[in-house]
Amino acid sequence: MTDIDEDEVAHGWDAIDAACNTIYPTQEPKHYGTIISYRLGGNDPLQGISAYKRMDPAPHWHYVTYGFTELYSKESDDAEISGYGFELTLRLRCEPDAEDPPMWVINFLQNLARYVFKTGNIFRDGDWLAANGPIAVEEDTRLTYVAFTADPELPTQQTPNGEFEFLQVIGLTEDEAYAARLWRTLDLLEVLRPHMPLYITDLARDSLLGQPGVQDSIERGRKESGSSTGYVYTDELDWRQEKRLLGKPTTIVTLGALQVQEATTLLPLRLPFGRDLRLLSNNKNVVFAPGENALRTEDDVLYVTLDDATVDEIASLLQPRRGEYPLKSFKGLRIDVRPTEVKDPKGNVVQTIG
């Protein structure tokens, strides 16, 4: 995270090298350094990425970054953590006779670094991220998401600059990522691990959800522990209160059809386990919480507490198609669904849902 000075002691760099040497004691890695420092106007935040060739449990390249942590002198005020607190790794399946690691991984890891350096947002064990397309742009692959978990062979390191861990980037298919979102990423990865040794990313693979026992394990896990996902982002969310001549007003929550399936799936995986579910938009938010049926508002936020019967009714009643859905178990609440227009990058409507 700093410019190289020949007089500086490379505590962080040496710690990364030492960790890798425990796995590859006799191998000289392929190393790709950054020519122009990020601080001097260069485009690459990381100072380097190494790649090690590995033949077991399947032939693959093991990439390791240098630069999310403080490689040389201590700069941050947090004495306990080195830099952002992690370096990234990625294991990519390859042919046994492959001589050079694919460069797209180098670019992909640098792109992840640009996101971290520009936003200050960090990755944590159990996070996942949409790649907005194939993780390898020029390859024919179904992997369009990535998950992050502790590298199974590189433990947390203690250095004079603070502690850091190695987070491994793992390619996922869309349905695997959705399963992770509806359950827990780390639990899903554990279920997939027998079919993905060392969490090696294989661009040629299909979804692992069809493997024997995987879906049963996921369903059983959801029933036992619910979901760790506490929010749904949507551009189509509104709420209002409609007065009635007799009785209390009706509160109407309007939701786009595209988000209905996710919201109705997550509600019974959150509230019965004592956890909130938040619907978030740029203008208004809705927070569903467990409890006796009740409503209250605060600024642009509608707080809705629901008992188990109402949660079950919403999950079974709501459909991803246009309509009004009054609730029998909660007389003062109605949920309206309106169609969602899916647009291409030019703003043209390519699909209407609902």
Automatic annotation (TrEMBL):
Q: What is the source species?
A: Bordetella ansorpii
Tell me which GO cellular component terms the UniProt record holds: cytoplasm
Query: Where in the numbering of this chain does the Suppressor of fused-like domain appear?
Result: 42-205
Q: What is the lineage of its organism?
A: Bacteria, Pseudomonadati, Pseudomonadota, Betaproteobacteria, Burkholderiales
Question: Could you identify this protein by its name?
Answer: Suppressor of fused protein (SUFU)
Q: What InterPro entries does the record point to?
A: SUFU-like_domain, SUFU_N, Suppressor_of_fused, Suppressor_of_fused_bac
